[in-house]
Amino acid sequence: MADKKQFQKKAALGRGLGALLQDSPAKKQEERPLTPAPPAAGIHEIRLSDIQVNPYQPRTHFDKIALEELAESIRVQGIIQPITVRRLEEDTYQLISGERRFQASKLAGLERVPAYVRTANDQQMLEMALIENIQRENLNALEIAHSYQRLLSECDLKQEELGDRVGKKRTTVNNYLRLLRLPPDIQAGLRDQQISMGHARALVNIEDIDVQLSLYKKIIAEDLSVRKVEAMVKALHEPKEPTEETKKEAIDPYKQYELNKLQQRLASHFGTKVAVKADAKDKGEIKIPFTSTDDLNRILELLAVI
């Protein structure tokens, strides 16, 4: 009887220890569900609300109609090609490429999208975003030119390296970069498709900005072809044969020599650059530029006007 009571006591003690162990912090910690690990590199389904837009996005304009058409396609067939993102922190990602698919997915009402998660620092992200967009998206010529310029300046690439990265010849890359030399009005016309890249490439060969702008307006007003514009630009660079009228107006070399001497004396007297011009009929002009009101008063004093 004593043995039976002793056994029951041990059993009760055992159950008490078990209950204590079950309620212990260590046991609770073991039974607590594990937080899912963040996605590793690869393709994953990610919430659209967890994705930030790409601050390095080279595309500045999206066609609304084309975006709606893409959204409708996504509603019917889903996203065929995943977007590319990088992970910033838990449940926070940043878009690398696929801006159109990202925006169209929002329009389509999707909550999650397939995304390829990559590891990249800021410079690598910029390079990947620019190169992938140049290769895959229908950027306009000016957007491509700005993307090439950013790759050269911000990613410290040389033109030879840039050509290799984007799969283009160096001459092609250079042709795009030269577009950035055009005045803002012509760049805007190229961006808005008022002129083509062929027109722009012809205009960039004109050094005088006023002539560039004049021909640019003529292209739009008269709907000139690229070939016509190229011919007009070529004509501007060809040396013109002197006509009989210009020959008559040409000044005598000795008179020109005397005018040059006079120009030098006047420049020395007024302490500024002076231009003296005359024709064969001894008609001409003298130009004395000034840089400020004080400079003008100084010249007027030398002329004994004040």
TrEMBL record:
Protein family according to the UniProt entry: Belongs to the ParB family.
Annotated segments matching region Disordered: 16-41
A GO BP entry: chromosome segregation
Organism: Nitritalea halalkaliphila LW7
Record key words, sorted: Chromosome partition, DNA-binding
The keyword DNA-binding is annotated on this UniProt entry: yes
InterPro entries assigned to the protein according to its UniProt record, in alphabetical order: Chromosome_partition/occlusion, HTH_ParB/Spo0J, ParB/RepB/Spo0J, ParB/Sulfiredoxin_sf, ParB_dimer_C, ParB_N
Gene3D superfamilies with a match to the protein in the record: 1.10.10.2830, 3.90.1530.30
Top-rank taxon, per record: Bacteria
This protein's name: ParB-like partition protein
A cellular component annotation (GO) from this entry: chromosome
